[in-house]
Protein 1
Amino acid sequence: MVKKLINGNYAASYASKLARAQVIAAYPITPQTNVVELIADFVASGEMKAKYICVESEHSAMAACIAASATGARTFTATSSQGLLLMHELLHWASGARLPIVMVNVNRAVGPPWSVWADQTDSISQRDTGWMQFYSESTQELLDTVIMLYKVAESPDILLPGFVTEDAFYLSHTYEPVDIPEQAMVDSFLPPFDPPFKLDVDRPHGLGSLSMPHQWYMEMRYNIAEAMDLSRRRILEVEREWRELTGRSYGGLLDEYGTDGADAIIACAGTAASTAREVVDDMRKVGKRVGLARIRCLRPFPTEELRALGRRVPVIGVMDRCYTFGDGGPLFTEIKSALYQLRDRPLVKNFVAGVGGRDITMKTIEKMFENLLRIGSSGLDREKEWVDLKRPEVV
Amino acid sequence: MRRELRSYKDLPPGPITFETTRGFFKTGSWRTFRPVVELAKCKKCWICWKFCPDVSVRIREDGKGVEFDYDHCKGCGICANECPAGAIQMVPEE
């Protein structure tokens, strides 16, 4: 075990090396660029045996990963914001072709106006592409999750791509001590990629051919739905194995903190959860029963975990670091939808905060908790609230 | 190998076809003009073979020039256009 002081981006590079990714297709974009820069160093120095393909766009980066993965190579790429949006078409293709590509996305706001700071609009916009989505809270979690995700994605009964996100700058450029696992240990955990079908000149077949309405398109989509549902259990199994090896785990699909006996909790994804933990500790010390539920995995969605939580907790505040115009915060609408089937539903309120990288401070979160505790007795004041918005009444 | 598929459970783990498309589907009926070669003029340069986008120009086993796979040739005329000897004519299908 070696501890290194690295940032989130370098944790992603180390993870791809430890996973022995064989093909890396890379295109630079702030704040992702040093993920693929360090991988380029690894490949140039011979420390990493991989084919490094410089491409002309993110669309091509994903196309190269798809082609390489179809021949049975383990693939990796990293992107952010507009780059992820440019990949969108091919994200659908990767999951439809059942290629377990693994990627890291740095959560960055979408323009205009230009912003390179933290916001989850980019990855949330990929909810329907059939990719598994993990949101990390720490640099160590990012490194560990990339390795775990390869194992989940490549399981013969799953065969779906996935990405791990890190909030721009909060993780991508913040240095933390990170345990870089031994290569031999990772090798014992993650066997080489051995897909049940691949492009092979000795055994030719077509990949992604046409399917007429009366043929098999619908059944193939059903199989993706089944695989994604199955991945819930597989994610938990793989995390258990990782914990046995390293002593580290991250709470499965929904990471709960201080939810026992809570009068109100906040649900969120990404680094704001670290700040919320501190606030939970402080408020618990003065007898306020509050807690945190971190959405670690957005796809597959932790539906059952949220329902179990909704049976115990009377008030849930959902903090979104992005917004779906014409509806609400995406985590808010997803969580409400999961809770709808409960007989006695908790109160659910949406806080939109930290959009475009605006800092989510402890004070911001404390205000939310105070509001949630209040509406717990007085009833919902308003369904959605943009927090720390510059408003005429407070100027 | 042709598999008997009855339900979603019988499908392979991805969107693959076990035979190449060529073996399964005859697409020559899309054609309105067919290429016809005059072997006496053929220089055996194989340019038509090289250019055919549908792998439908074949080199004859007797080596006397080329022949066409009319089950798959769609009549695009590239072979006739490329032939430096003018040995290939496009003839309307009846």
Note: DSSP finds three helices and five strands in chain B.
Protein 2
Amino acid sequence: MKDWIFSTDHKRIGILYLVGSIAAFAVAGIMALLIRLEQSGLGPTITSDATNYNVWLYFHGAAMILAFLIPGLTGFLANYLIPIMIGAHDVAFPRINSFSVWLFWFAIVLALLTFVIPDPPDVMWTGYPPYSVQTAGNTSFYVFTVHLMGFSSILGAVNFLCTVIYMRAPGLGWNQLNIFVWTVLGAFVLQLIFIPVLAAAVTLVLFDKYFGTAFFAPAQGGDVLLYQNLFWFYSHPAVYVILLPAIGTILEILSTMSRNPIFNYKTCVYGGVWGTVVLGSDVWAHHLYVSGLVDWLRIGMMMTTIIISIPVGLLVLTMVGTLYKGSIQYNTPMLYAASELFLILAGGLTGIPLSMTSMTLHLSETYFVMAHFHYIMGIMATFAVFAGVYFWFPLMTGRMYNETLGKLGFLLNFIGVNVTFAPLMWIGVEGMPRRYFDYAMFPQFEGAMKIATVGALIIALGMAITIITWIHGAIAGEKAPHNPWGSKSLEWTHTVYPPGAGNFPTPPTVSADWSPYNYGKHTAHTI
Amino acid sequence: MKKWVFTAAMMAAAPLTAMASSAAPAAEGAIHDHTEGWNNLWGHLVLDLGAIGVVFGLISIYMLVSFVRKSENEEGSLPGLSLGGSLAWTLVPVFVFLADDMYLAANGFKLWINQRTVPVNAREVKLTAMMYNWEFDYGNGVVAEADANGRPQLFVPQGQPVVLRMHSEDVVHSFFLPDYRVKEDVMPGRITYEWFLPKQIGENVLTCTEYCGVGHSNMFGKVKVIPAAKFEEMILAKSGAATPAPAAPAEGAAPAAPAAEGAAAPAAPAAGK
């Protein structure tokens, strides 16, 4: 126990991030199930108090984004893998790393207090004032959770940028880095620049609510839209903080399982990843198309938003191209990775109408938006985390998971998400608004809601099987053979499973023609 | 390689030709009904995105199905890219995406101008939002009454565009008319607007789409489209009832409000009376 609490080993810290974020995911998942059950029929079904429902919505959104997806990808996967992938013995600042994981755990505990305090926050994860200031709900729990998570992420960002810049193995050049390392670098640059803005925004809400200031109170000279700009100034880039490492994880798996190098590596890195980082910070106003913002800013951001399909398109092209003439092995991580091609297609293409100001006049704040971002962010990134856990499971535990159970869990999850979100997307186009406790004015949507509830139950079963598979594998799985997937990357070739302190029995050095993707006849020069 | 570049170039050209053919101007002086415009553009989008989706989906399925590992030691044989190949695989898709993007943006912008330009003959209604209700004020002290169930109702004349000048008394709300494909946020401290053209006699749902608290999903009511003559009659009867009362301050305040705070709202022609 003491070994874990005081550990400064990046691998243990990574596992701690995983346990914390999966705990948050489980609670957020139960909230999602309650939400779908409540919507399964017209009128109140499982609760008669709309505030309960609003608290579920708040917790589901805030926990999924801040406590599961971001820490799952940039906390767990980045922590565990980046030092090993670049051939380093640990991160640049191991104690700060330990501090940031415990900040994250405190944030999760604080978030979970939502369910025991008398007036839980009911402000949605967006926390728009004046509602978040006027509500009887305890907004401060939301604000302090964001502070702790944000502080933790900023420390992580500094730590990992330093680690990758200064601690690469001798001879390891920038163009030989794993694609996952690049995507995490992009994500951390975004975190470092934009988290302070979110922290400022929610702190001003705190001041307005508890200290009587009026930053967002128009009657005293404040401005409601100021908050929305500040909030989305971070929270849109946050989407790419999630998207980029998720795509990085998927690309690692696609490349390894098809034994092919990354297709058009340099374009993927410098065009796809960094193009997304640069453009991703200039599109936030597309969340404000119907907010009453000045018209010229809406049009400007429509252009940047539409154009961001280009770097994202390049990333998708790399994903598809990496499979060409490959030698694909289908196991659980590869099934998740392959399904991403379709999730990204469904989520990405439905984003294009939403990038257009004229379309959002009808579509914004409906189930269409909700289904869109669940496909591209919620499900896509969740599947990426799951794929990552399965893919690096032998490395982390030294054991193999049960392939049959893994595939069964995948199948249920994949069917479940589509049964849930396809009907919801459809009724969104028909005009069903989000965040509704009841939908008495739209009785025609009850059938679709019932189908979605069935889907949610299928997902719940799939998730339960998935988590059982992990626990079973970690305790009783067969011993993992060396390099089970035949990868060329340092984390598989130069370590024992699980790696001990210092990661490598002998610190690796790499030559100029080495690449983590040296499959077939390729060397680093030919890619 | 050449075949691919050619195909890509054709794909890039397709939206441009489509744009040229869809640029037929609407009849001079007619009211551009943006509800229909939205439905048309949505149809375009479903085709455009459906085509991209099918192409990418088929390519993905082809990749996933045809390159399955045959023997344990088999490795992939993705051909390496030369500098030229690498650039081609970057620039050609970039321009294909860009061409489609520009086509969509141009069409979207055309509709947007229509959605945000209020016709000169629009009937102006002042909307006040509050937790958890809507109030509609036609000027001269004429307000729309709630129906028998206490639900807000907005009476509008058939065939005449209606513009809503909106503000909120408390938190952010959003006024949504699903059937007319239009919404805009309603907030304290600023005046926002939206307009629509009621064409068919009947009822349409009006509702709130910005989360505003425990009664958020209960902020719904009806738009009631009635014949123009009947509508004018109703307004006249109500304002007749309102004038004898000493309503001088109320009367002065109602029309003055949009003008005084109009600086915050984008310039749009006032009701042409």
Note: The radius of gyration of chain A is 23 Å.
